[in-house]
Amino acid sequence: MDKAEVELRQVQMEFDHQAEVTKLLLEGVSSAHAHHLRCLHDFIEAQMGYYAQCNLYMNDLQRHLGSYGLSTGNSVPLQKTEGASASSATNVACDEGRKAKVLYDYDAADMTELSLAADEDAVLFDK
Known about the structure:
By secondary structure, the chain is mostly helical.
């Protein structure tokens, strides 16, 4: 019986030790999880600030482009229409070229292409 009690105490000590190690590891995981959540939150806030700043720059650029007058028949100024959203806020004013109505939205694949919104008017020029 004494031998069984000694074995029981040893196994209980081993179990208690493993339980303590597991508890410490879980606390580490919890701490790492909280740190990762803080980093993710900081990243999202940085992204929001970046895109808000990009929006300001694009609005400023659109205002500057809209302020240019039509100087020659080849220039195509961008003008903001009242109450229009940013995607449909450009109208083409031109004396030359053929007019076309855009039927579908098109996102430019690279810098050599134009993005177009459905129902936009486009003026086509010959090279």
